[in-house]
Amino acid sequence: MAVLHLRHLTHHSLLSTSKLHHHFRFSPLKSPRFSCSASASSTMAKQVLVPIANGTEPMEAVITIDVIRRSGADVTVASVEKELRVDACHGVKIVADALVADCKNTVFDLIALPGGMPGASNFKDCGALESLVKKQAADGRLYAAVCASPAVALGSWGLLKGLKATCYPSFMEQLQSCATAVESRVQQDGKVVTSRGPGSTMEFAVTLVEQLYGKEKADEVSGPLVMRPNHGDEYTITELNPLEWKCNNVPQVLVPIADGSEEMEAVMIIDILRRAKANVVVASVGDNLEILASRKVKLVADMLLDEAAKLTYDLVVLPGGLGGAQAFAKSDKLVNLLKKQAESNKPYGAICASPALVLEPHGLLKGKKATAYPAMCDKLSDQSHIDNRVVVDGNLITSRGPGTSMEFALGIVEKFFGRPKALELAKGLLVVRQ
């Protein structure tokens, strides 16, 4: 299974990237500190704590961390368990920067809890975290939670009394006993921000950026994410030259990763496809299983590409991120694997920078309609469909960026399992209304 190592940024490391705040934001990670492309505030970076636990929902954790780091904040990821590594949902393992117990003397501008079960219950049972968040509330500083955590953690600690809050639908009854429960995708009341689930986490994280740095910074961060204009509406894909995607019982899917891969895109693809019961193999394009993703998230692949390339796949799908896409394009083994997939008329796909930097230069978009990250679309020879969020052309699927990743993954689910299955999953994720 994939392992995620999450490490926080220092104020100095954030300032080192300030020149990259315009247009394309996926860094090639030429040095360990070169990881966050949003410009930092001229004042000291805001201090943010994101706790994680066994059973944490990895999409909610990684999206929150990634988006907030784009604002220039210094995010510390802290484990509530006895060790740094936690077993998150869907076979993803996360390694924190510190233990929550080691953060008790730190003053945070924001504490944001991801959801997932039993992750939220493990938060509730952690005395050190409870003390930290209660002090945060008592001092009038910002605190937040998504999915199960508003009801299971914040509510049980008495931190939502008299406040409007929201949470994952199946926990609304529990929330009603400790807060004024509302069905907003993101709800703010005073210094508390709550949200519903994976499909609302990006909105949640952007709201937190606004609370930390103001609306101008939130707009600066949210624009390049390519977020959905109408959150909750039924997702759509643009399909040309329809082709049935076949597999034997369970789809076998390869997701390559490399230094500089966009962690949100990688984790959303892996998480959603595993929810759909696809067999997902995460393979490192390089000499080591560990890769350093675009915003200081370390991922450990299931195997090296050399080993993964010996297997056969129903789909090979590339996450984006500038550095990751550049590494993919230089990998003869991966390019040959993609060419073999295309020649066999078997599905392959890419999102963000990868359609433009990997598929296009190697002739894998010839005669195909595709889209890519907006700042990269001028590299596509056929730009007739670049404004579509997800484009399927026969055995090819492409998409635009972090904010389209869930639709992209759901489009893959739809092609293998049918639209009813994809919509069922989308409703559970709160990508579309239940």
From TrEMBL:
InterPro entries: Class_I_gatase-like, DJ-1, DJ-1/PfpI, Prot/Nucl_acid_deglycase. Pfam families: DJ-1_PfpI (PF01965). NCBIfam families: not_thiJ (TIGR01383). GO terms for biological process: glyoxal metabolic process. This is DJ-1/PfpI domain-containing protein. Keywords: Repeat. Residues 46-211, 252-414 form the DJ-1/PfpI domain. Belongs to the peptidase C56 family. One of its GO terms (cellular component) is cytoplasm. PANTHER family: PARKINSON DISEASE PROTEIN 7 HOMOLOG, PROTEIN/NUCLEIC ACID DEGLYCASE DJ-1-RELATED. The lineage of its organism: Eukaryota, Viridiplantae, Streptophyta, Embryophyta, Tracheophyta.
